[in-house]
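testing teh design pipeline on a random one, pls ignore if ur not involved
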């Protein structure tokens, strides 16, 4: 590790997601030593997780080794470790196994995790989608359900196995629901002898009045129309009140189904408690206009773990562009401090719009000056995601698989490895 007593500032970044990676890259030319810590050895492109979960892509297509991303940046040392505590008074962090590490400046970029809002029993009966491990379990459950149905003789059991309940109608839930129907209707349609995969039901529950909250009403209405045409059964304006092994209760009615996928909420990873910070929504760390924690100009918090309200009073959303732009901004602030130069102006988010896939070859795009739907939006979605993916190798692999999926309905990642996780 770089010498802590050396004159150069030691910057410790916790979390190598969108925000942490961008912060480390932004310090490329700064005369500082950066230690980038993550409990995983890979950067994960979460917006495409649902494609891994539905067998459209392989895990390696959307993940990149952090170490190789910084192979050429000599001032970055990558550590595979888990941070468990921070002592702001002595400016040290505690790693797994009680090892400590000193910092001059700490950047917390630990992101968020799936949250069942205190219903721990619901978490036992439904699968979240936040990591590659989650996507793997979800894919095994999905493919395992078709396999179990194929070998069952009980029509009621088959119906239950082939019912997929998605809770949460934001972009993750919409994309997952559409992709499961797509898989059942097109990819699997000739592969089974005793069941008709096309009959698989996908139920999508959203507590708000429309899908895709945050998108303009016209685009949300388009998304609903497209998903309904694909065969997704929509339940908007209905709160899920209970989840158990046999299904969900929503709006007072019981909806049976063995496969429940939870896309309804996230909470910040628990970094706020490490530093005793004031918290905002879902345990996020309240930060000031320069992304520092109030009263602690040596600790920054960025991305999903932070709660940033801009000068107009808008709370920034938990999306990748916010994390990336905050990471780049924090790097500029730190580089200025290292040079002894004046700090840059307050952070300002440049919102370039939102995109979501809504079923086969169709998307919605809400851009600052134009709203697009259908195939054109889908082409735009595909191009944007290819550009944003880390690494040329992943871009080429994903492009080839998307073209093959589009032309031949093929999904190359339909492997079930290890024990089947099909529901009983
Ligand atoms: C299924 C899904 C779909 C999404 N789709 C979109 C989309 O279409 N568009 C969009 O803009 N956003 C999307 N998002 C949100 C987007 O991925 C997040 O906003 C973004 O990842 C936040 O970046 P971050 O750097 O704050 O955190 P992350 O990217 O989550 O990175 C946090 C990192 O911190 C590490 N970490 C956490 N705790 C510790 C610890 N104690 N010690 C060491 N390391 C730790 C984690 O391993 C992780 O690598 C989606 C998210 C999900 C889950």
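output:
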């Amino acid at each position: 590790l770089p010498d802590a007593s050396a004159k150069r500032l030691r910057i410790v970044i916790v979390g190598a997601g969108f925000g942490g990676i961008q912060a480390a890259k932004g310090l490329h030319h700064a005369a500082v030593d950066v230690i980038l810590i993550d409990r995983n050895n890979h950067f994960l492109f979460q917006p495409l997780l649902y494609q891994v979960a539905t067998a459209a892509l392989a895990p390696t297509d959307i993940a990149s080794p952090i170490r190789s991303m910084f192979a050429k940046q000599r001032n970055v040392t990558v550590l595979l470790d888990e941070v468990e505590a921070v002592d702001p008074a002595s400016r040290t962090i505690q790693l797994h196994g009680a090892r400590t590490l000193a910092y001059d400046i700490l950047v917390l970029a630990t992101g968020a995790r799936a949250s069942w809002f205190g219903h721990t029993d619901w978490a036992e009966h439904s699968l979240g989608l936040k990591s590659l491990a989650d996507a793997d379990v979800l894919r095994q459950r999905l493919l395992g359900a078709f396999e179990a149905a194929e070998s069952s003789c009980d029509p009621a059991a088959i119906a239950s196995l082939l019912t997929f309940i998605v809770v949460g109608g934001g972009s993750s839930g919409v994309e997952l629901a559409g992709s499961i129907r797509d898989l059942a209707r097109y990819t699997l349609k000739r592969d089974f002898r005793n069941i008709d995969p096309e009959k698989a039901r996908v139920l999508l529950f959203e507590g708000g009045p429309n899908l895709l909250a945050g998108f303009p009403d016209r685009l949300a209405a388009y998304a609903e129309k497209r998903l309904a045409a694909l065969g997704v059964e929509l339940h908007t304006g209905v709160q899920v009140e209970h989840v158990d092994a046999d299904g969900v209760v929503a709006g007072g009615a019981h909806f049976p189904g063995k496969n429940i996928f939870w896309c309804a909420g996230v909470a910040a990873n628990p970094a706020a408690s490490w530093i005793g910070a004031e918290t905002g929504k879902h345990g996020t760390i309240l930060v000031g206009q320069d992304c520092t924690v109030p009263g602690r100009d040596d600790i920054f918090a960025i991305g999903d773990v932070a709660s940033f309200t801009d000068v107009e009073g808008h709370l920034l959303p938990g999306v990748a562009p916010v994390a990336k732009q905050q990471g780049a901004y924090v790097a500029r602030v730190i580089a200025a401090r290292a040079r002894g130069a004046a700090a840059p102006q307050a952070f300002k988010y440049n919102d370039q719009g939102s995109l979501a896939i809504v079923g086969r070859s169709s998307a919605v795009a809400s851009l600052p000056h134009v709203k697009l739907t259908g195939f054109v939006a889908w082409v735009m979605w595909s191009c944007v995601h290819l550009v944003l993916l880390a690494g040329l190798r992943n871009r080429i692999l994903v492009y080839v698989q998307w073209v093959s999926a589009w032309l031949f309905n093929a999904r190359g990642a339909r492997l079930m490895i290890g024990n089947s996780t099909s529901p009983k």
